[in-house]
């Protein structure tokens, strides 16, 4: 009996010590005074953070995005008693920094990046499988399309980023021109608006690589009638139609329709040129719309927001997705998963998208009927998320499409025509060669 009593007492002491040292007890034990006075709680032990979460995010062009994320991260750190290192990285630098971190064996616990960056790490068996997370939330089916890879589920969709064509309505009306609907219309409009002497150019296209220039050239080639790869991943880019397409893209620069610096411009180049009022047409996501709505409402009034143009053969929408990924070698994957769940709280997730004026389209079902997305200007953005063509289409959904995009193969090919005066057919031959190195390992 004495033995049993000692055991119970020892168990109580251990439980008390454990609760105080971990900070996990919300009801601090109190002593009951013999004289019946009110008991005073013992001082609470200071809670210790449960590890450290390293979260890398891409820095969006609209500053409000990262400001809002910082607020959410701070709230998560407070609610879950976790130290969080939040790092916002320019999209053009994400791949370089990430490769260095992975090679050093020190990747972030959580990464939020463009789909084409994320998919490159799938084939190397470096990512955490996330099908359990997909089951926890009501994701739209079209959201899961870009999260899928042949190897399995390794990306958690965060938001859609549809692209549109921005056109200076006031400049077009001055020239008595209607809305451009084809690539031929785009070039004709650019020629009509072009006014280099007054620092205004018909186009704000760039060739320095990144998703914007790669997406534009890819779209142009496909609308001229050529798929870059077929459904089996065989490279099919070297055709007379593709040759005409890259010559057409090169003409935007050789004919002086884009500013001279555009040849080396990155993804932020067209945003800056448009918001500075220096160009007449660009292709971009809703980040430009959000920036105009907040800081340049007078420019927004002078702007047409239109679908991507049709080519001689076909028409395609454009855009991409942003996704969470986690690395197997990361130190705090459990907390990373906890943050993803926190991120998708429907109220705060909806507020994130609303705060950004539609910068990202929702990946969850049930948000399309909210007052925000039912406004005509926002409904158009939501509808645009339904027509995004997956990266690498019609090829297999694997990391190869991401790799060729990240290597800027198309942009470099057109650059050679513009800067090095390379014969367009030779440039196309080199594009084909570089695509085969990735797709066919040749």
UniProtKB/TrEMBL annotation:
Disordered: annotated segments: 25-45
Q: Which UniProt keywords apply?
A: Cell membrane, Lipoprotein, Membrane, Palmitate, Signal
Pfam families on file: SBP_bac_1
* Signal sequence, renumbered to the chain: 1-19
Extract the SUPFAM superfamilies matched here.
Periplasmic binding protein-like II (SSF53850)
Name the InterPro entries on file.
Bact_solute-bd_prot1, SBP
Q: What is this protein called?
A: Extracellular solute-binding protein
Instruction: Name the source organism.
Output: Paenibacillus agricola
